[in-house]
Amino acid sequence: MEQILPCHKGNCTNKYGQGHFPCSTAQIKMASRNNCSVPAGPFLKIKLSFSILHLHFLSVFLCKVTTEEEFTVLEGGSLTIPCHYEPQYVSYVKYWCQGRTKEFCTILARTDDHHLITTADQKVNIFDDPVQLVFTVTMNDMKEGESGWYMCGVEIGGMWNADDTSFTNIKVIHGMLVVNSRMSGEEGSSVTIECLYSERYRKSEKKWCRIGDWRSCLSTGSEGSYNGSSVAIRDDRTGAFTVTFKKLQIQDTAWYWCSAGQHKISVHLLVTPQPTASR
């Protein structure tokens, strides 16, 4: 019977990949039970060693600049991206560029561009907040063609020092979104639902309907009632319209949808009973 060596110092791999030697499958299983990494031969030895060193390298040398992996924005809207960084980068130059790799990335904004006057209607704005350790990038009037990969960067400088960066994928879509797809309110109170639409639907008719009841549909600029609740729909023509319920009733609990042109999106409204007064 094959002798199974115990997992102890000298027979397992530490976090720096030291102490490798060829082992049997049984030895590996025993090592696993003892929370120890033991390679099972040259191939696994190389694989585990690389993985451990790679993870250690990532934890120590990378991830100093971070942001979300993906953002979605409606066409014609604005998007603000937060890029977080470590304290040692407070005085460094930050930048925002479009592209999947540093070598082929088109810089759109830099914090050291003193000739750039930041205004609200500017296409790309960048602002560094060293107190919060974050710089934010705001992109205005987004178009579908601007979908793709972007990068937050901290400029390190020097031949041997690569910039610290973090990538994100931005999706610019046309259609509709709702700020909150599940709304709730207490009986007798008011609630407002906000429906967002992309630029191409700015002039389209907006509607609010109770699903399954076409007679309940209300158009923008109109008012109506459901079960004693008053309902008003308003369109600001800047990318959002609101639906306001007043004097909510329990019977108003249902699925609804808001629409712009041919696009619609569902919203669930839950009305909860008023709390019973304690005696």
UniProtKB/TrEMBL annotation:
TM ranges: none
Pfam families: V-set (PF07686)
SMART domains membership: IG
Ig-like domain segment(s): 168-268
Localization annotation: Membrane
Keywords: Membrane, Transmembrane
PANTHER family, sorted: CMRF35-LIKE MOLECULE 8 (PTHR11860:SF87), POLYMERIC-IMMUNOGLOBULIN RECEPTOR (PTHR11860)
Protein's name according to its UniProt entry: Ig-like domain-containing protein
Annotated source species: Ilyodon furcidens (goldbreast splitfin)
